[in-house]
Design goal:
This protein is an alpha/beta fold and 212 residues long. Helix 5 packs across helix 7. The chain is globular. The model has no long low-confidence stretch (mean pLDDT 94). It is 31% helix and 23% strand. The chain has one domain: Alpha-Beta Barrel (TIM Barrel). The relative contact order is 0.16.
Amino acid sequence: MEVKIIPAIIAKSQKELEEKIGSVKDYVERIQLDIMDGIFVANESLNFDFKLPETDCEFEAHLMLENPDNWVNKNWQKADTFLIPIESCAKPKEFIKFFKNKEKKIGFALNPETPLEEIKDYLNEIDQVLIMTVNPGFYGAEFLPETLEKVRQLRKLKPDLDIEVDGGINPETIGEAVKAGANLLVSGSYIMNSQNPKEAIETLYNLIEVVE
């Protein structure tokens, strides 16, 4: 299963969004857009009618929103994959059907305290699962190694599923995440706060090769 590094973008303005995408778009296949309303998590990001620049990258939207329904109805065309926290998803089956009808991919995200059981009924219908390895909302939160137990369990349950980890992924933690079974690795602060994002991405890919 292919392992991918995915930079996470937190942005408060169109200008900041374009600058951050521009700094990584030539070095990755996929970029995560962190969309936050200041309610579901304490931060705000991309909480405006943004436009994405032309790139060859895929985009996934991580909807850290108290009410993802409203955002989805207005913005479903903006990304290729949509990751919805199961904690704020009142009708998971309806989201699955909606995105499948739009020929988009869908996954559910689990916060650190949320057990895997919350999404087990949907595993045969979704494209990926996102395991939060930090408490979400800000760049640079503390990595929580105990969350990787969910990755291990999920990999046994669904050997071919795309399993993503998000939060605190850097040179010290990436090996642990890959060994647990994650194949999509979201890195926010390590890449986006780096003086040289290209070098940061290359460092992470090199460490994956060592683990594999």
